[in-house]
Amino acid sequence: MAGKGNPRRWRSAKALQAAVDAYFEECSEKGRVPSVAGLALALGFMSRQALYRYTDRENENNSDDFVTIITRAKLKIEEENIQLSYNRDASAGARFILQNGFNYSEKKDVGLSGSKIRVELVDE
Prior knowledge:
There is one protein chain. By secondary structure, the chain is mainly alpha-helical. It has one domain (13-101). The protein contains 5 helices and no strands. Helix 1 (13-30) runs parallel beside helix 4 (64-84) and helix 4 (64-84) packs antiparallel against helix 5 (91-101). The longest helix is centred in the middle third of the chain and has 21 residues, at 64-84.
């Protein structure tokens, strides 16, 4: 049973993969965009932060297979948002998710050149 942000106990990597696949299938059937929060809920976590902690490499209590499955699922969610960013109707939301959930950033070129600006001060 889930508690304190821990997911339910998975008996095998195959069972975990089946739950991840079921989540993506449900999103597809309902026309929803998958999210890290939705994945966390589907896997029995209490928060998306708990999901992030679970996949943290420093946590030695987790099987590498389990970490790989969840990491690949998060990458699939990231890819879905990248693709949505090309869709005019969904691009603002997708950009927000990418910036805040996946550490993407927009870089703005200020256009500074090496030219000098001359300023004259005149006493009046």
